[in-house]
């Protein structure tokens, strides 16, 4: 599988998982439901949804949940990420989640933005987080 072009079958699995996760989102404050799914280096899919909190800053993004599920399952390598929102506006990962993804993903890792019905945009992680800081910086220090 090319890093920038997930196989159609993998993309469909990611979309299905992220859309299902979005249905489980807990977002009573923003009403903005988000689902995410990551493909790991073993071909497994891990999903997450946003989970908000009455103490607003404690809310967690969908992408963070998906990454947590991946780590719990024993992987630390992301091959692709899908984020699913609703409607025409692209739900791209927030800045914090771009950095969280950077921990586990190569610069050319595809980040795919979709809604309930279609894929809307494709990026690489490096496009979304150029000149980024990552674990290898600490190895060199
Ligand atoms: N949110 C995500 O879960 N992922 C994104 O990529 C963008 C924003 C969530 C956070 C919050 O629960 C709600 O969407 C509104 O910002």
Task: Explain what this protein looks like in three dimensions.
This protein has 141 residues and is an alpha+beta fold. Helices cover 32% and strands 21% of the residues. The chain is built from 5 helices and 5 strands. Strands 2-1-3-4-5 form a 5-stranded mixed sheet. The chain is globular and about 45 Å long. It starts with 7 loop residues before the first helix and ends with a helix. The mean pLDDT is 95.
What order do the strands of the largest sheet run in, or round the barrel if closed?
2-1-3-4-5
As a percent range, the share of strand residues is 15-25%
- Alpha-carbon Rg, integer: 14 Å
Low-confidence stretches: none
Largest sheet: 5 strands, mixed
Number of strands: 5
Question: What overall form do the CA principal axes indicate?
Answer: globular
Helical fraction equals: 25-40%
**Residue-averaged pLDDT, rounded?**
95
State the helix count.
Answer: 5
Secondary-structure-derived class = alpha+beta
Task: List strands and helices in order, with pairings.
Blueprint: H1 8-23, E1 35-40, E2 45-49, H2 62-72, E3 78-84, H3 95-102, E4 110-114, E5 119-124, H4 125-128, H5 135-140
Parallel strand pairs: 3-4
Antiparallel strand pairs: 1-2, 1-3, 4-5
Tetrahydrodeoxyuridine (THU) binds at residues 27, 30, 32, 34, 50, 52, 59, 61-63, 83, 91, 93-94, 97.
């Amino acid at each position: 599988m090319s890093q920038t072009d997930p196989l159609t079958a993998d993309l469909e699995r990611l979309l299905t998982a992220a859309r299902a996760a979005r249905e489980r989102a807990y977002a009573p404050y923003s009403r903005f439901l988000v689902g995410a799914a990551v493909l790991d280096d073993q071909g497994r899919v891990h999903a997450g949804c946003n989970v908000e909190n009455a103490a607003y800053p404690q809310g967690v993004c969908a992408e963070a949940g998906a990454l947590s599920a991946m780590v719990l399952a024993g992987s630390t390598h992301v091959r692709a990420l899908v984020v699913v929102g609703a409607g025409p506006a692209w739900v791209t990962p927030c800045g914090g989640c771009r950095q969280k993804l950077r921990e586990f993903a190569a610069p050319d890792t595809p980040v795919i933005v979709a809604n309930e019905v279609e894929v809307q945009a494709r990026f690489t992680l490096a496009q979304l987080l150029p000149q980024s800081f990552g674990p290898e910086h600490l190895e060199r220090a």
